[in-house]
Amino acid sequence: MRILVAEDEPETAQFVANGLQEHGHNVLVARTGTDALHLGLTETIDLVILDRMLPGLDGMTVLRRLRAGEVRAPAIMLTALGRIEDRIEGLDAGADDYLTKPFAFGELLARVNALARRAAPQDVVTRLIAGPVEMDLLRREVRRDGLPVLLQPREFRVLEELMRHPGEFVTRTMLLERVWDFHFDPQTKIVETHMSRLRSKLNEGGRTDVIETVRGVGYRIRAA
Ligand code: CA
Asked: From ligand 1's centre to the CA of 10, what distance in Å?
């Protein structure tokens, strides 16, 4: 597994990294919260071991931001604070397990292995369903009422974003960022144009519109 270890104390970082490497893992070490967040968001990571107290951003904030960035790798929080509130806060932030310092390496390894078993095989979503619409993400196929709908790649991505959050509003800004990778508003009708084409293809033959638009809010696909 590729494991991100975020720990500012050099000795602990070394001890954890060496131990994991000896057990065949590939380890990336971050010494600050900022580096941990950057690595977590840019590298493919299978598991995160995160110290609670880190310079830059604290472990809890790093984890929240990773989760907000759709990083779902299991996380173990390390802490010198064994208080129940910290444990709850860590779990709330998206940690899967918690370990109080000092700990024996064997204890950490047992938790790493337990999370690895739970995470594998990665439950990657390959099929999305919302009401009469079905998407096969591997075959890149879309069906409405069982009939194929042919979409252009960007239309497919727009629909995928809606279908990943059935019943929830997806804003124009979210679509610009996720589908076009625009981190600014290009002041074009790009979203509207694609949405309109997507709709006419999905609703061909005068079928009920499966996408709902609320001005100033965004778009959503009806869940059922
Ligand atoms: Ca620390």
From this structure: 9
Residue 59: CB atoms within 10 A of its CB come to 26
Give the 3-state secondary structure of residue 98. Answer: strand
Give me the residues near ligand 1 (ion), CB cutoff below 5 Å. Answer: 8, 51, 53
Q: pLDDT tens-digit profile of 58-103?
A: 999 999 999 998 898 999 999 876 677 777 777 778 899 989 888 9
The Å distance, Cα 81 to ligand 1 centre, comes to: 11
Domains of the chain are 2-123 (3.40.50.2300), 127-221 (1.10.10.10)
Cα(45)–Cα(31) distance, integer angstroms = 16
Distance (angstroms) between ligand 1 centre and the Cα of 198 equals: 49
Cα-Cα-Cα-Cα torsion 104, 105, 110, 111, nearest 10 degrees, comes to: 90
